[in-house]
Amino acid sequence: MTMDLLYSIDRDLLFFFNSDDQHQHPLPFLKQKEQKQLGKLIKKVHHSITKLQRRTPDISSAATSRFYQQKQTKQLYIKLDALKTQYQAAMEHLQIRPLETDRERYEQLQVIHGLSGRLDRSSQVYEELHHLHRALIQVRQEWKLDQIQDIVSTLATTSPHDDDDETTLTDQHNHLWYASIDNTTENKRNIPMGLAGAVKNWLRQIGNRGKKETSTDVPPSHHKLRSRHHQHLVCRRPQQHIRQVIEDFQGVFEENARQNHDRMYRLYAPLFHPEIVDPLLAEDIQRLCLEISTAPPPSLASLHQPSSPSSGTTMPSFLTGVDEMQFWVPTQGRTDGSVCLGLLSEYLLQVGQRYYTSWINDIEKAQQQHTVPFQIATETLAQMYRALQIEQGYATLLRLCTQLEPSLP
Fold first, then answer.
1. 168 domain residue, yes or no
2. Neighbour tally for 1: CB within 10 Å
3. CB 36: neighbour CB atoms within 10 A?
4. Do 244 and 160 contact (CB within 8 A), yes or no?
5. What are phi and psi of 315, to 5 degrees?
């Protein structure tokens, strides 16, 4: 019985410091200097017990009595008893529930590790929200005026119109240029979701629509983007032609937006598949809190599938509420005029940017709604882990003080 007692004391001492004077258990209530002093004292007592164990496997009552009478044993008891008081105060302040056995403590620790892994897997949704937000910002940044002007110039000179409605693009180069965007890579962090590449498909679609040949050639896909400013289109029926250009641009925009939607659903799948999210995670975290603490658990009702972005599913109408003649610029001193493609490009730019801005706002709203409870869940698990450490430390100190109490006179 005496041997078992000393073994138990030695084992509990090594719970705080091992034989190399290294921390086994955090001591948050002691300063660094105090921790070193306690470590040295535990090391001395450990060596004392080891010597007794080496002398004889069956330690006599007299040897045990000498152990209790040693100065370091009494000093250790006084320090551990003071530390126990601090742990007890922390237990009461943090409303930590005492556990019965070390096995129960081990099981709770395994539960924390399991919940932490489940929370990490669920965090994929929130990471995808972050990456989708960045991708959409990049798309909006690609909406530049010179790029839109090039597309509008292409559409203005290739849009079908009546044979008697002659059109002339002033201040133009020999070729129309547009950007060729590579959409083949599957790297979601670098994949572009730009607009200009979609104009190529539109040009192919209208290639056999019987459009009137003009002096302007359609560029090859490898040409680079060149900006043009203040271009004007001279035509006999400006209102009809402007409407046609806007409708054609709407087609280009919708084709590109659908491509972006397809990429979004493919590359950011966790946002649109609720089964990926752990539906019982919040409930299990709250159950853990009730088993470790007497305080009410935090509310984690929002710790579930984020809402899917909705603004990106509704296409904008570039013709709604627009006055085509606001882009008409009369010639001073004359009755005729021209269509200012720069003004028209600015209008289309604003509508397109508003579309993606609305989509981005939805993502930011989802981030605000779901990031906070995710952070709360992470902090809750960390708090339960610290609470379990304090509870285990207090239980060990309580046992040690009971065992070392005979050292007092």
1. yes
2. 7
3. 13
4. yes
5. -70, 140
Q: Could you tell me the residue range of the domain that residue 204 belongs to?
A: 124-388
3-state secondary structure of 104: helix
Q: How confident is the model at residue 366 (pLDDT cuts 50, 70, 90)?
A: confident
Q: What is the CA radius of gyration of the chain?
A: 37
Task: Give pTM, 2 decimals.
Answer: 0.63
Residue 232: C-alpha distances to residues 11, 77, 150, 327, 376 (Å): 89, 93, 12, 10, 57
The SS3 call for residue 160 is coil
Pair 152, 340: CB distance under 8 Å: no
Q: Tell me what the pLDDT averaged over the chain comes to.
A: 75
- Residue 114 included in any domain: no
Report which of residues 57 and 226 the model is more confident about: 57
Task: Examine the domain organization and report whether 91 and 128 are in the same domain.
Answer: no
Counting the structural domains of the chain, the total is 2
DSSP characters for 329-388?
Answer: EEPTTSS-EEEEHHHHHHHHHHHHHHHHHHHHHHHHHHHHHHHHHHHHHHHHHHHHHHHH
The crossing angle, in degrees rounded to 10, of helices 2-16 and 61-69 is: 30
Residues near 378 by Cβ (< 8 Å), separated by ≥ 6? 119
* 170 pLDDT higher than 60: no
Residue 395 lies in a domain: no
354 and 237 housed in the same domain: yes
Does 50 score more than 90 pLDDT?
Answer: no
Task: Indicate if 34 and 73 belong to the same structural domain.
Answer: yes
